[in-house]
## 1
Amino acid sequence: MRKNLPAIFLTFVLLILWQVIAIIINAHYILPAPTQILVKLWELRENLFFVQMPATMSVTIIGLVISIFMGIGLAVVMDMSPKIENALYPIIIASQTIPTTAIAPLFVLWFGYSIWSKVLVAILITFFPITIMVFDGFKSTKREMEELLITYGAGKWDIFFKLKVPTALPYFFSAIKMAIPLSIIGAAIAEWLGAQSGLGYFSKRMMTQLDGEGVFAPIVLLSAIAMVSVAIIGYIEEKCIKWRKEI
Amino acid sequence: MLEFNNITFKYSSDDYNMMEGLSFKVKDGEFISIIGASGCGKSTVFRLINGLEKPQQGKVLVDGAEISIKKNYSAYMPQKDLLYPWRTIEKNICLPMEIQRKSKAEMAQTVEEMLKEVGLWEYRNKYPKDLSGGMKQRASFARTLLTGSEMLLLDEPFSALDSLTKISLQEWLVGEWQKYKKTILFVTHDVEEALFLSKKIFIIKDRPVTYFEEYEVPLSYPRSREDMKRSDIADMKEMLINQLRQKVEL
């Protein structure tokens, strides 16, 4: 808690600054004050928490789970075979040069307003850091540790499960902490570009009504979900990988 | 018995041979130290024995058979303990047996005996970070023993330890060798360590390595530190240091 005090203090100062500027500008449709956003969040609580949030969360969670499996799978096959690595790596990098905002409407065209058009956007944004970080984790295995296992008669799978997986675990947790906000962003962007429900969709709808607080309220909610999720993963990581600094 | 038969070896990144026509034999149950200047190829000998490197010419034989067709004939203990930080001491020591697919019951019994033998039974559930340097080396040695191999390749295992811990581990190692009667090849920079531990000393004088100069240590076991003060041993130490000094360039 003590180590977070500077961040809490800075956030508090920025919020006060925001509040003061918002009062000076006095145009809530352009820049609502934090207190106005909180009031709006409370007023819209039923719609935001029980209608829009579940829609966004289902996209986020499905996208994240598929990305985890896909990212780990790609990292494993690339680690196992340099030929596959040479074939896949450039394609994976190229996938990140596709502008999400340009491709998302295409997904709507292909999959309609179903959940899958939005899940695809979330996957496109999320699988990349998981793949690259887990792959880097496998590659970071110390050569002498691997050679020691070879002298014990270890095969490829022994080396993979007994050495590479534990070595890559800290990288995996870092990837997940990065992937959660990205998955939420991906879901929200997809909802902005074409959806019938969700926090992104709701934010866009409020914008058309020039409701500044209504635009910000779902965004605040998305940020809060991302922060809490990352904190939970960080806590699990701390409990599971006490040896992180020893590698 | 280990036999190097006319071995020539060069690392692919080098433009010179590390070894040329090197031949030597090690009998079962011997304790041999290999000493030489840094980079002379001491550790390369181990890499060739455990199959991590392949010679361009010649054969490495164990009990008359080429090592490519043999399994579990040697166990390597590196300079760093290389204990896995995510495993407890008990789990670390189990590693070679897990790879050999031993049963859980057998592993549990063997590990208990071994941990008691090396004085780490109370530390079985601790992680490597909780142990001192000497304890970690003992754990690493226990893991090496549990490979079940008859030949142990110890690559400067005590070089990173403080002098007092080093002395006590040297005495402990001699005791373990006498108990388990394994063949030990021990790489070191330290002439006194080689004299205290081994029956025979191999000196690497030149690169490429074409031969080992062999010296019998005129001491019986058990040995004590007082033996190191004997005039013949002191003379031998001086002679070995002089031999090595000629090859060290500052």
## 2
Amino acid sequence: MTLKVRTEHLSAWYGAKRGIEDISLDFEEHAVTAIIGPSGCGKSTLIRCMNRLHEVIPKARSEGKVLLDGEDIYALSAVSVRRRIGMVFQKANPFPTMSVYDNVSAGLRLNGVRDRKRLDETVLRSLKHAALWDEVRDSLDAPGVSLSGGQQQRLCIARALAVEPEVLLMDEPCSALDPIATAKIEDLIFDLKKEYTVVVVTHNMQQAARVADYTAFLYLGKLIEVNRTRELFERPAQDLTEKYITGRFG
Amino acid sequence: MKLPKFPNPFRGLPLRFDREGRRLWKDFGMSIAAFVCVVIALVPLGSILIEAAVRGLQAIGPSFFLLDTAYGGIGNAIQGTLILVAFASAISLPVGILTGIYLSEFGKNRFGDAIRFFVDVMTQIPSIVVGIFVYSLILLLSVSGIVSVRLVFSAVAGTIALATIMIPFVARTAEEALRLVSVSTREAALALGIPRHRMILRVVLPTGASGLVTGALLGVARVGGETAPLLMTAYGSGFGFSGLDQPVESLPHTIYTFALSPYTGQNQAAWGASLVLVLMMLMISVFSRLLLRSRYPLGGAGR
Amino acid sequence: MPEKAERKALAEGLRALNENMVTLADLSELAIRKAVDGLTRLDPDVSDEVFTLDGEIYALQLEIEKNCVDLIALHAPVARDLRTITTSLKITTDFDRIGRYAKDIAEITLRFRGKEPDHLRNLGSIPEMTEIAIQLVDKAIRAFVARDAESVRHIQEDDDAVDLLEERAFEELVDKMTSRSLDVGVGARYILVTRYLERIADHAVNIGQRVVYMVTGDRVPRIRAVDRANRTR
């Protein structure tokens, strides 16, 4: 089992308030790891530390390490970390002034790539990877925001994939979507893991059960349990985990 | 353009006075009261426009626009206003927008708060005080020999005064416009590995562009009608623009002088000039609104 | 909050399931007791009662199956709930089987047609077997109701006694039949009874082991008595 990303004793604060405490978690390469837990348990904080987005918030700080292929991400530049670890957000956020094409190619264009051919290829490849190509192939110049909710989210996934990251972090990617769009994205996640390492934060346990190889349960900022999904859902080791997944608290 | 449907307050009026009926009558009464208040609010605005139109139209003709104020026209006044506003914008738009960018992107700290506070204070300074300030500043500079004393009453002085009023205004509206760009748009850009300066320049600015443009146009509209600061700086002249270091006429100033003059011809010209000024301001507002709609057909900026 | 409401429905479903399981268990135990009682006294009326019980057991078993499938379809249960439901689904088969063997014993009682002079002597170790078998069933049911895994973790060993008794009874009966002191047609019936009792005990062991899984998630390995003996040596 190759570990693509690891956190070591990671803690993070927003000002005086602690978001996560002493989390050491491994993420296997080419696997989907789900992070579940009740609202406010630190799931989003955790992944935002992983692509160094946490530090952008004023008065935020963190301790501990995050290792990408064994390298401390704080030893690298934030920009290069974020190119290797991409993120998709809870609410689809395509750039409002850009077309579908421009949205997908934004990561490359805004980093200086001008070669039209390369951009065209990237857009095609990314949209195909995100299972959106067939639906938008004839309207690449339409505004990004003119797509439906589910399509917009897949657009954001395509945009993230266009910069060819190694890891994809997804923060509750389906929470704003209807069941059909959700199913499409879950299928997509299933395919994506062949080439990427995926981390999905979700508050929907059935979703974790459906898509993830490994599941980690967080509660009040601490890591309670992590295991192969089928083990965690069939025989959780911790009482707290059992209570959460069977819905007996909250 | 579809006019909004006028709500019919008489619809559904009950013919009873039990509790349900009383509530409906109260509702009806409030609707009437609100409507009356709207009328009261619109009356002064409407009457200004009507007065200006009625009295001013008589003065308007081709010569009105071509002649200088020395000859009863307002040609040089329009020219002067345009020049002053153009130069003032040339200075204040970049400075104001950059300040706005700083405040919204980098100003989430004590220093930023302090700047914001001072900018707010500056937007409240009475414009005549700005006029006095610029006047004394140039005077002092000329006394110590740094600049020529001619500049005290000149287009340059007028430009500086208008810019001083415009900068804080544009800075604030620019900051607001950029604030409207959602955090998630910025995060999306950062998450792609786009460096911060490029995120601001090529994602945030274009997204907030319509808001910025609106703010700029409103700033222009604001200073276009200022009179007091120009009294002690640009001063006024009967003739057309003759150099940056010379006094220059402006529309508000023309209205002021013509209205107080004993000649009825000039009084009427004052009404004409008023109409022209109001129409200019109106056109800027409408234009900025159209711009907003064309960029965002569904309405709203920075979504 | 919809999440809470869904769990209430699940909790209610689980409670009803448990009630049904307990009823099923009681019916099965009652069936064997009656069947063996009927055989001992060669009373055909008791056999009829056992047939009725078997019918009820079968019907209840079907309903429990349906309950379980519904709970899974509607509530996507996990962890303990999931194990409880899948265990229930499986052990209904065991209880049903126990009921069937009880019925089979009752059938044999009918075949005797109430006459058999040496009956009690010929029964031999059958009463002893019956006692142990019933105890095992009882133990398994108690463990299920109390959700007590430890009491049944080694239930397989208790079954060894039943297996030994069955062997002994088999040999005794074969002896008697070859020495002609017992009619083969009759002797064969006794052998069948011992067989049924041994199977009943096996099903009790199944139930016990599934209870261990239901409570702890552990799966107890099935080891032949011989190998177990070898291991402890």
